[in-house]
Amino acid sequence: MAVLAVLFLKVYKGEETTFHISGLQVNTDYRFRVCVCRRCLDTSQELSGPFSPSVAFMLQRNELMLAGEMGSIDDPKIKSMIPTDEQFAALIVLGFASLSIIFACILQYFFMK
């Protein structure tokens, strides 16, 4: 069983609406999220909003892929197979609900007999 540790680092804070990051490693999974901060004019206090859902990103190498290698993550077929965080959470909830219904039916069958 592999343990995945997610660490978010602050890479930009400022007033610009766009940001370009450099120095990323090839074939490494990255996850990004943003947060909006408002600065009060009279007190210079910052009010932070909630973070956006994280978005997965992997920098692909520039070489041509060999015929036997998997396609790029930008391929729509592969991209549709990767669940988002919300879809993964819904799958977990659906799994637990299904399991509890099955257990309830089994228990009812044995205790009502």
From TrEMBL:
Matching SUPFAM superfamilies: Fibronectin type III
Entry keyword annotation includes Ribosomal protein: no
Chain ranges passing through the membrane: 88-111
Transmembrane among keywords: yes
Xref: InterPro entries: FN3_dom (IPR003961), FN3_sf (IPR036116), Ig-like_fold (IPR013783)
Coiled-coil regions listed: none
Keywords recorded for this protein, A-Z: Membrane, Transmembrane, Transmembrane helix
Protein name (record): Fibronectin type-III domain-containing protein
Organism of provenance: Limosa lapponica baueri
Upper classification of the organism: Eukaryota, Metazoa, Chordata, Craniata, Vertebrata
